[in-house]
Amino acid sequence: MTNPPLRIGTRASALARWQAERVRDLLAARGVAAELVAITTSGDEGARPRPAGVPGKGTFTKEIEDALLGGRVDLAVHSLKDLWVEPPAGLVLAAVPEREDPRDALVGPPGVGLADLPPGARIGTSSLRRRYALLAARPDLEVVTLRGNVPTRVRRVDDGTVHAAVLALAGLRRLGLAGRALALHPDIVLPAAGQGAIAIEARDGDRATLNAVLPLESRDLRLAVDAERAALAALGAGCNVPIGALCEAAHGDQVLTVAVYASDGRSPMVARVAVRGDPVAAGREAAAELRRQGADGR
């Protein structure tokens, strides 16, 4: 008897569908059939917007996780940066198969970088991390709130609502919208923990699904994103703090860089530690260093 296809819970946005279809194709390459189930979340366009200042974690995942816990889907595909560092009871981060370029990017007039924007230029973003990083680099800029999916934000640049916008380079590339995007160096804006990585979530104890997705796991990538997320957890994942974290290979080691950005325009506090095979310890070490620098006071 043929097993029924695995049901993949996903948001209906173009980027979310791209990621879910990518996981479906990876499973198909291993002989595992799967189908997409689109689920509307509170973070989607048309849903009630969250109040200003309320953290966005969970707004793109809760309804999908509820469907997973309720057995309406067998697994869920997310952007890893949207997931809480601790999954809800009964769920596990089953696999992290791949990551696009994790950097942020400036989308503006062709060939115009951050340093080329005119004084007082309006830059759109919905991220406090990006907002404070931009103002640390260019205090003269007017950073305004820009919401919507990736294509909508790019259109806001085209229609003149903003001079430029800052988005994740990964999403732009996956949707074929990176033609005029200029990557921002992590020294200017450090990406969010897990940015660019695809996450597969499943029910704890669902051995059939876990066994199906486990071969998709990238061990080196998992070590990197576990270090980033461990730092976020150690600094207090539930608070609305503008934190960037990126773990990359450097001189034969994996090096974790974590930054906490300030709302008053000061330079960010930064910690760099070698991972050396223990991502959780590295994340905690980076968080401890940032606390020694006064991160709790920002």
Model description:
The protein is of the alpha/beta class. Helices cover 29% and strands 23% of the residues. The protein has helices at 14-28, 62-69, 128-137, 150-158, 169-174, 207-213, 219-236, 279-292; strands at 6-10, 34-38, 75-79, 91-95, 104-107, 122-125, 142-145, 164-168, 181-183, 198-203, 243-250, 253-260, 269-274. Strand 12 (253-260) and strand 13 (269-274) form a beta hairpin. Helix 7 (219-236) packs parallel to helix 8 (279-292). The termini are far apart.
How many separate helices? 8
CATH topology of the largest domain: D-Maltodextrin-Binding Protein, domain 2
**Category from helices, strands and their pairing:** alpha/beta
Radius of gyration: 19 Å
Strand order of the largest sheet: 2-1-3-10-4
Mean pLDDT: 92
Would you identify the CATH architecture of the largest domain?
Answer: 3-Layer(aba) Sandwich
- SSE topology string: EHEHEEEEHEHEHEEHHEEEH
Number of domain modules: 3
Query: Helicity level, as a percent range?
Result: 25-40%
Strand content: 15-25%
What is the level 1 CATH name of the largest domain? Alpha Beta
How far the N terminus sits from the C terminus, by CA atoms, comes to 59 Å
Largest sheet: 5 strands, mixed
Overview features:
5-stranded mixed sheet, 23% strand, alpha/beta, 298 residues, Double Stranded RNA Binding Domain, D-Maltodextrin-Binding Protein, domain 2
TL;DR?
The chain has 298 residues and is an alpha/beta fold. It has helices at residues 14-28, 62-69, 128-137, 150-158, 169-174, 207-213, 219-236, 279-292; strands spanning 6-10, 34-38, 75-79, 91-95, 104-107, 122-125, 142-145, 164-168, 181-183, 198-203, 243-250, 253-260, 269-274.
